[in-house]
Amino acid sequence: MADKQLILVVEGTAALGPYWVTLVTEYIEKIIRCFSGNELSGQKLSGATPELALVVFNTHGPYSAFLVQRTGWTKDIEVFLWWLSRIPFSGGGFGDAAIAEGLSEALAMFPVPANASQSLQNLDVQKHCILVAASNPYPLATPVVSLSIPNIDQSENAETKSETCLADAEAVAKSFSQCSVSLSVICPRQLPKLKALYIAGKRNPRAADPAVDNVKNPHFTVLLSENFMEARSALSRPVMGNLTTNQGLVKLDTASAAVLGTTTISS
């Protein structure tokens, strides 16, 4: 297991498609390259290569080919960027998206503390998640993966169990701080409900949000966790991008998902 992990949770509907190249070029690729290069303040630091993974979610209903899909982990930046360039944005776009399912799928992929006495402050700077969406979350509670974390009174060897429960997106977002995973949000629109998810996922809801230079796209929402130092550093200096969009070459498996479809995006 890598010391540092990042999962990108992306809305796969047509609502996000028109903004995707801009989002990747101006924000996502810069963050990924900085995070994978262990670069802070322009200096390359020693350490193991971080792992990257992708979760794509769609909308509820018969017009979506899938609900949630995910890749495995990779340490290869170019492979990860290739995955991003092959997301087939389609369907949905007219209603609320399955954000709760996407976030819970990502959360289940992260290792969680073996017990509550483990240092949470150390873990939350190691595991990061970025939600990239252009739609509001589905308002009703739906079946999602629920992680049962041992409390401090339990044995050091107590196991963390994965179960299913009913929850909405905000309830899932609150679980991120409990699992020591930072949650950031990037959206090409101003959606208060997505900002509410970001606030719900913060360790300290009253903590000031880090300032982000967003002059090029003032209508975008860019909310970076105060614990995601690499992301904050990445957006302060230019990085050359090489994303090539060709969504017709490779498509995700469009088999219907029941509650949480987890089809792997092959490389």
Verbal overview:
Residues 4-226 form the Mediator of RNA polymerase II transcription subunit 25 von Willebrand factor type A domain. This is Mediator of RNA polymerase II transcription subunit 25. InterPro entries: Mediator_Med25_VWA, vWFA_dom_sf. Pfam families: Med25_VWA. The chain has 267 residues and is of the alpha/beta class. The chain has helices at residues 20-36, 77-85, 99-109, 120-123, 169-178, 192-200, 229-234, and strands at residues 5-11, 39-40, 43-44, 51-57, 68-70, 127-132, 142-148, 161-167, 182-187, 221-223, 263-264. Strand 2 (39-40) and strand 3 (43-44) form a beta hairpin. Helix 3 runs parallel beside helix 5 (169-178). The longest helix has 17 residues, at 20-36. 43% of the residues are buried. The model is unreliable at 121-125, 152-160 and 244-264 (pLDDT under 50).
Question: How would you summarize this macromolecular structure in one to three sentences?
Answer:
By secondary structure, the protein is α/β, with parallel strands linked by helices. 25% of the residues lie in helices and 19% in strands. The protein has one domain (5-264): von Willebrand factor, type A domain (Rossmann fold, 3-Layer(aba) Sandwich), CATH 3.40.50.
**Count of folded domains:** 1
CATH superfamily: von Willebrand factor, type A domain
CATH architecture term = 3-Layer(aba) Sandwich
The overall average pLDDT, rounded, is 79
Oligomer: single chain
Strand and helix order? EHEEEEHHHEEEHEHEHE
| C-alpha-based Rg, rounded | 17 Å
CATH class: Alpha Beta
Task: Extract low-pLDDT stretches.
Answer: 121-125, 152-160, 244-264
> What is the molecular shape?
globular
Strand content: 15-25%
Q: Strands of the biggest beta sheet: in what spatial order?
A: 10-9-6-1-4-5-11
Helical segment tally? 7
| Helical content band | 10-25%
At the third CATH level, what is the topology name? Rossmann fold
Q: Could you give the distance between the termini?
A: 20 Å
